[in-house]
Design goal:
With 70 residues, the chain is an alpha+beta fold. The protein has 2 helices and 4 strands, in the order βαββαβ. It is globular.
Amino acid sequence: MVFMDTPRFDDFEAFVQARDEVESASKIAGEGCYHVVIACEDETTPETFTQALLAFGRYKEPREMRRVKD
């Protein structure tokens, strides 16, 4: 998550805390500001969630392709 113009960290953190599909959210160092994990019950969940993220800035959407170890 990369914020535009004036960072709205408090607003963003309140947003992720209020969303049921968010399993975890962490403030991170390096590229981006946050790492957010969501649980998707159907194929519309990611699209709906990422559209709502646009109010806070840009995002990248990495996806797990294959788990190599549990």
